[in-house]
Each structure stands twice: as C-alpha cells, then as structure tokens.
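Chapter review: from sequence to fold.
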Amino acid sequence: MKKVLVWLSWGVDSAVSAYLLKSAGYDVTAWFMINYLAPEWEYCPTLDDIEEAKKVAKFLDIPFFTFDYREEYNRKVLDYMYEWYKKWITPNPDVMCNKEIKFKMFLDEAIELWFDYIATGHYARIESKDEVFHLLKWVDWNKDQSYFLAFLNQFQLSKSLFPIGHLQKSEVRKIAEEIWLPNAKRKDSQWICFVWKVDFKEFLEKKIKHIEWNIIDTSWKILWKHKGVFYYTIWQRKWIEIWGLKEPIFVIKKDIEKNELIVWTASDLALYSKSLFCNNLHFIANAYNFPIKAKAKVRYRQADQDVNVLDLWNWNIEFVFDEPQRAIASWQIVALYFWEELIASWVIE
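The token string follows.
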C-alpha cells in the first residue's frame, strides 16, 4: 500500500483528490500548509480554512496535520515578490510557490516522513513513458494549470500525483456532492497562492513605498495620477481609475526613470509584439534541438499560439510568433507546448 501525503486546502479539488486516492487503495494523510496569517485587524481566512480542511479529513477518516511554513514562505516567495516589485518588475508568485514550496519543501518533508508520493488538486496530468515523466494539460483546457507548473523537474513529477487530472470540473463537483463532502459547494478560490483574500495593494504597501505621478496616453497627454507604478503590469486594466473615457484603457508601458504609466486602448499597436527573448530554457522531460516549431503562451489561460523557437547564440533564445501577441510582459513566464505536453519554459527577458 503506497503512502501519499495530500496537500489539503479548503477547496473541493484537493478534497476530491484525497477521496479518489483513498478509494484507489492508497494510505492517505492530509497536510495543511500555513503560509500566511494576516494581522488581527486584517481579514484573512486561513484559520477558517484550516477548520474546513479538518472537516474534510474527519469526513474521509484520514490523518490531518498542519505545518507552519510562514518563515520559509516569507523568505522564498514573499521576499522574492517584494524585491521584484521594488524594481517595478511584475513577478509570477504562483509559479515560484509551486517551484519552491509545494513541490520542493512539501515534497522534501514528505520523503523524510517516508511517504511515496505527494498529491495536489492541480488541474494537470502526469504521464510516464520509458521512465520519463511528461507534464500534460488538464482535460478542461479553460482551467488547465500546467502553466503554473512549468518549472517542475523529472524528480518532482515522478513523486507527484494529480488525481483529478482526468476529470472535468463538473465531474469533480458531482463527486463531491454525491459523497456529501463538507465543502462540496464551496466556491473556487481566485486568489494568488500566498495572499489569499488579503487586499493586494495593501499587502504590497507594507514594504514598498509608493510615489504618485502621472498616467499618460501615447500622445503624452496627462490623464490622471497613479498610486505607484509597481502595482501595474503590461495589459493591466484594474486600478486605472480614469472616468469619462469611451473605451477601456490598459497599461502598455512603464517608464521607470520618469515614474510614468503609459496607457491606451486595446487597439494600440504598442501592446503588440511578434517576438520575445529568454536567456535559457528549462526542459521538463526531453531537451530538443533548435529551431523548434511549437505552441506557446505568455500568460495563464491564453490560447496556444504558433511559434518558432530559435537559439541565437549561446542559449539566448528567441520566440518568433506567427501572429503579433498582445501584452508580452517581461519577467512573466513563457510556456512551450507540443500539443498537450508542456515541454519547456523560462522567464521572459
């Protein structure tokens, strides 16, 4: 009987994952990671989520433990995030969370405790062939989370299970309701992994001083004032509070030297580019020789885009898209696919 440590959150996906593993004959233990607790004067539902996870573990009759990872999380994820935002670079903390916490620290702890595998409720699939592990998209492409798992390696994949990878979201909900899981009707979380439901702007302002200055359009006309450029990323619309415009406006550039935010409508050509550059690639299973003709995406839930990948010199990589891409943002992640398989990824330079 294989032993599995399940990362049990308050959500229905990890709960159904634990149920499916137990039904399949695994020896299942549940683990709740405490990554962030807000001060008393802020709303943070972590303690409520722990109680919800306890109910699930009790219902499934599996052991339940909590582990306090706040110190490690602060050092490996939050400090990383703060430092990048201070440089006006928008990082991708979900990818870093998976790389450094869920599939590194969590996995290391599981191995030390003699577990054979870890399991999560991620929307992705793992398939092995000839002792090589391949990371595949989820069956419901609209919610596929392989993009957030783009930095996993062969060892991590070999020790990980995604029990709901073969199910549509509607099937996951149906299972939860049919077995009367306590959290069967809880809504999905839309919050990034570490902040939970804390106000994100307030969260950043704790350590980053914001300096107000101009929001301008592409003709250099001053439209309004921003509250700190570090809040924004390319193509962002949220927090641009300018009234009376006929069309929605988006961030197209951040001028660091002038502390200016440049914005305009979705049709602006400044938002589009046919290429991007990386200084390396992380191959998940097999390495490939260049040039490569494949599919790529530069943000979560973007439709796959046709691309040619070229090695210019000494692992300086260029992605050349067949069609101009909207809002390619530096320091975000580009993920490369062959059909359903995520084969490589790296940070956009």
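Two observations follow directly from the output. The mean pLDDT is 84. The chain has three domains: 3-178, 210-267, 271-347.
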